[in-house]
Amino acid sequence: MSTISDVAKLSGLSKTTVSRVINNHPYVSKENKEQVLKAMKELGYTPNPAARRLRGQLTTTLGVIVPRIVNPFFSYLVNSIEQTAYNKGYQVLICQSNEDKEKELTFLNLLKTKQVDGIIMTAIENDWSVIEPFTNYGPIVLCNEYVNYADVPMIRLNQSKGAYIGVKHLIERGHQKIAYCTGGLFDEQGKDKDRNHGYQKALQEAGIVINPKWVFVNQHSIEDGKQVMKQILEMEDRPTAVFTGSDEIAGGIMIEAKEHGLIVPDDIAIIGFDDQPLAEMLDPKLTTIRQPVDQMGEKSVEVIIKRLNNPEMKMEIYEMPIELVVRKST
Amino acid sequence: MSTISDVAKLSGLSKTTVSRVINNHPYVSKENKEQVLKAMKELGYTPNPAARRLRGQLTTTLGVIVPRIVNPFFSYLVNSIEQTAYNKGYQVLICQSNEDKEKELTFLNLLKTKQVDGIIMTAIENDWSVIEPFTNYGPIVLCNEYVNYADVPMIRLNQSKGAYIGVKHLIERGHQKIAYCTGGLFDEQGKDKDRNHGYQKALQEAGIVINPKWVFVNQHSIEDGKQVMKQILEMEDRPTAVFTGSDEIAGGIMIEAKEHGLIVPDDIAIIGFDDQPLAEMLDPKLTTIRQPVDQMGEKSVEVIIKRLNNPEMKMEIYEMPIELVVRKST
DNA sequence: AATAAATATGAAACTGTTTTCATATTTATT
DNA sequence: AATAAATATGAAAACAGTTTCATATTTATT
Q1: Which residue of B48, B61, B75, B328 is the best one to mutate when testing the A interface, meaning the one whose CB has the most A CBs within 10 A?
Q2: How much is the pLDDT for A85?
Q3: pTM score, whole prediction
């Protein structure tokens, strides 16, 4: 590996001048600049990032915390984040928090030791009070998750609206008995809380009273969806429609329903959340709430880089558009 | 952020001794070691990785090159790699090569500039001759992809066998007209070449002649699968079964077939590759070739770390088990 | 008791950059 | 023509560690 000194020697100039060329500083004559560029090319020179970091701080690396990368919603988010970051000259380090507080903390520590310039959190395991101190070491932005009193930029959706338009759609289709599957617990704060609120609001407006038996909490996977359907099948008074927190749960419900001879949407209407590719592959195709995942990833990177160059800029909330995609399952 | 000098000052010892404690070198007295440890804790000191790297130390970061993270096969692979790496104290940097030779090269450069200790490549865009020089800067292991003459560890499957058992299964079910969808071109080298070989071998053994019209090359996505089915529907002499290179293509084919009123597997049998969760969600559930993705990721990390500690150890080939999972689509 | 080996410690050099400071040269302004 | 400002350049310091080398002290061996 050649160093800046080699380039300096070959071009007959000082390290300082070479550094100026590398960093596009003014006050380097045309001829010398060309000399340096030529020498760099000849040696196949690349600046050593470790040395630059040691001096300047920037690592051009962003950390992304996701719960699980195999969840398509998050793999699409990481995809978008990685692409945007690459175009802006950043690398992406991933961490799957995996519902593990320790692991989340280990990862946040990378910020402290300047291994990453900033961190995009798409999930939060620890209390905000334990995360908050890390903001002293570099920007943290929240994407998809949010915390009311956190003083950091947040890229989010109007989750409440998402649930609202979904449930309203079911009501407009004539349903009165509407079940509900959510990720978190029913009265938590954050994203799930908002969705719950939207669900309640839509029902309330239509004068429908919630049947607590039809509310399923802490549901995530396809398998969870299947279990939910099994429970529904055993009920005397069954819901005629179900609003879910992800396309996967919806898929699980649909599969199990079909397994038992139910017709979707006639016997039971199903609505998903996310609009993953899966939604189009189910039979019947899934009505769902589209989350603009690409936009969210892109915005998160933009915001974090902006904060990197502008550390005084603090909290800002970016709300992305959310919409209903009507297909055949409702 | 406190530095090693601060720790030295506080403990009344030299930077050297502190460094020795950090790196667990011998020849530090018990008492002094304790002093240093105490001072480190008191200051909340963490060594600056940039400085360590500059001195030619390990970065405890592994790079992973995938074509696209949103492809479930690769997101599962990354999942397994990340988990294993974390347990061994490594971080994971991801790069989506995205069929972009430039991008792959940019990423390989991280090895040259010691931003990653080693790189796991799950896809190869450039010719091996351009990748090979990078092996001088740190270990590269090939996972899932492979190159015959490359002198690096490879974690692979017997792809030929995979295709062979799949096609043979179709023949045993009574099919003679078997179409074939592959990722690469038909006569390339690497993974696809092997599968092609398995396909040919199975047919040959059964005395079946390949109809070139039924061979579809360069197929990857769900959408591709749909297009393939459209082409098949227009044929006078249609295949009765199709072997595909991924569950997604299989899914696309199945969806399109059902759209046009065909019954799977009666009118057309379909077999996938990978055994992704999707395979169980399709209706009918998809017969497919299972790739042990978790094992592959785990092994890749193990091997690369072993190479890191043992640089002289060169090529080694690890072949993982592959098996047929019979469901309802055949 | 004399010598060799093992243990313990720190000063200084080194890693490859960027930044500061000093200084020389050129151009613009009065 | 004299002075100020802009342009151009390099030597040396700084970043935060690790490694080399020198040296002092203990312990083991003859």
Answers
A1: B75
A2: 95
A3: 0.86
